[in-house]
Amino acid sequence: MAAAVPPELPLRDFFRSPERAYFRISQSGQWLSFMQPAPGDGGPTPRRNIFVQRLRGGVPVGQPRQITRESARDISSYSWKGDGTVLYEKDFGGDENFHIVAVDAATGKSRDLTPWDGVRASIVDDLPDQPGVLLISHNRRDAKVFDVLRHDLRSGRETVVATNPGNVVGWITDHRGQVRLGVASDGVNNTLLARAHDRDAFKPLLSTDFRTSVNPQFFHADNRRFYAVSNRGRDKAALVLIDPARPDAEELVFAHPQVDVYSATWSRVRKQLDTAVFQTEKTGRHVFAPRTATLFQRLEQALPGMEITLQSVTLDETRFIVAASSDRTQGARYLYDRRSDRLTKLGDVAPWLPPAQMAPQQPVVYTARDGLEIPAYLTLPVGRAPKNLACIVNPHGGPWVRDSWGFHPEVQFLANRGFCVLQMNYRGSTGYGRRFWEASFGQWGLKMQDDITDGVQWLVQQGIADPRRVGIYGASYGGYATLAGVAFTPDLYAAAVDYVGVSNLFTFMKTIPPYWEPFRQQMYQMVGNPESETDRARLTATSPVFHVDRIRTPLLIAQGARDPRVNKAESDQMVAALKQRGVEVQYLVKDNEGHGFSNEENQFEFYGAMEAFFKTHLKP
Asked: 397-407: per-residue pLDDT in tens?
């Protein structure tokens, strides 16, 4: 029996913050924490703030207590340091200059550990075996590079443990918390630096060009060798073990035949490799430890049909925060006690969205015009025949990331409104091997755009899409692809929504944040060099702002005024040029946002405008 067409659910239900989510457990299991919307000190608007609750015998007891009072923006993520301190990062209006804030779990007293304007900080290692100290990195000394410092939480004193010589873009610690590896880059060549002790000087260990990646994960139990995800001598990145005495002789640990390995996990208790993680159509893992295999088997039996993720764990690895979700639900969160084999439900993330009324996300593959196979995800509106539908293609941002299977609020919202949605992993999307990634170099607006266009043609050929009612929506690079789509294939789309997208490849290159400077030469090779005569011609040909005379498609453009990645001028240029030609364009700017809208009220306004816009022009 065919499913009924579901009712239109309230827009806010798709995008509002969960009542309780982002559960974490303190390192010895004394505290449970979570985030929920609550007013802060600066105003009545609820923001996502952190609450704590005591655990006794693995069970929450007493009433939760609010320990943060942010009022300007939601807290996006946080972690525990020991059992007494909660750490989180905050920026200001979306400028991405993150500060690290420490909060006393017992008193709620907070302190900004990096209280400097224009400085971007992050946690390198929370040093779980060393109470009261952690390693952080920031660019206070030089805006273009990040040093590593040991920060004493009680006194606030910082001690430099690794000074950036000007080209290090990443740091890796060993199991003692010493900074042992650094990844240096001149933009096109990477050098892995190593030292035996944090008193020693770094020395080059191995070098590659940027197309060849050796990404250290963590050290082996001997604290000398280290695991890395590497594509040296292979197309698909694999998990390998590297001995600094023989760095070119990688020991293969695990490789997947179809996709890259992208990360691995380590057991602190057993001091051994736990899992290697990869993505085919869905996230997969290769489990090395029988104890971990038993853990996942137990959870998968208790939560059938769900994708299982371990989001937080105690230091003794006996209690876990478990996330269970799927493509049709954000699911629920649980506290699992391995010793008692007890699974305690902590809460549903979005119980107001009935899974039966959400749409399945189907993995599909289509062939681009040059024969390259393009993996994609197709979401069809529930209760409607897959024929002559109004459809929206939704190219992801990045562009060097990928779309994945799971619950996507934007996609489910559009499907609930009667649209089919196609998310394609065009060439350059990561996870499919080096050749697939390199096929995107120099192809912004060219073959990468063809992959998106060919996805539209596939939808039409399959009879799914009505060719007169196809829209395009994307953010960041997806916003660029949206503008390129209406500029270079002006008859293909009936409506387009560009969210913080690039319009001019020349100004985009000129306004990158200072901490991207080490990657400038790499960007020149992957996108194009404005100083090269040959590249300059191609960048001109593929910058939508220079081709507004071809655009006829109605546009909605949304932009954060404080966006450090895609400067507001990118959207301003486009809007001014379109208005001069009389093309219909709506422009939504938020002064308190950056690269994408974070605050709920701004998200509601944007998605409301997008819904009205697509309904007007695509008539689902």
From this structure: 999 999 999 99
585-590/555-560 β-pairing: parallel
Three-state SS for 18?
Answer: coil
pLDDT at res. 1: 55
Q: How far apart are CA 74 and CA 50, in angstroms?
A: 10
Give the bridge partners for 147, in sequence order: 138
pLDDT < 70 positions in the chain = 1-2
pTM, two decimal places: 0.93
Token pair for 282: 């869905």
Distance (Å, whole) CA 460 – CA 79? 47
Instruction: State how far the alpha carbon of 520 is from the alpha carbons of 155, 263, 359, 391, 511, in Å.
Output: 38, 26, 41, 37, 11
Cβ count near 284 (within 10 Å): 14
Q: At what angle do helices 477-488 and 447-461 cross, to 10 degrees?
A: 70
Residue 212, phi then psi, degrees to nearest 5: -105, 120
Angle between helices 600-618 and 409-416 (to 10 degrees): 40
User: What confidence score (pLDDT) does residue 280 get?
Assistant: 97
SS3 state at 4: coil
Q: How many CA atoms lie within 13 A of 132 on its CB side?
A: 5
Residues annotated as catalytic (active site), given as ranges: 476, 563, 595
**Which tokens belong to 535?**
């590249």
542 within 8 A of 444, measured Cβ to Cβ: yes
Bridge partners of 215, per DSSP, are 229
Question: CA-based Rg of the chain, rounded to a whole angstrom?
Answer: 25
Tell whether the torsion through CA atoms of 541, 401, 592 and 616 is positive or negative: positive
Interatomic CA distance for residues 416 and 414, integer angstroms: 5
H/E stretch holding 579:
helix 568-581
Query: Which residues 6+ apart lie within 8 Å of 143 measured at CB?
Result: 118, 514, 515
* Tokens 């105690």 belong to residue: 314
Phi and psi at 518, nearest 5°, equal -60, -20
Query: Within a 10 A sphere around the Cβ of 72, how many other Cβ atoms?
Result: 16
* Distance from the first to the final alpha carbon of the chain: 23
Q: How many CA atoms lie within 13 Å of 251's alpha carbon, on the beta-carbon side? A: 11
pLDDT of residue 94: 83
Half-sphere exposure (Cβ direction) of 369: Cα atoms closer than 13 Å:
12
| Contact by Cβ (8 Å): 299, 336 | yes
Strands laid side by side in the 21-25 sheet: 21-25, 31-38, 47-56, 59-66
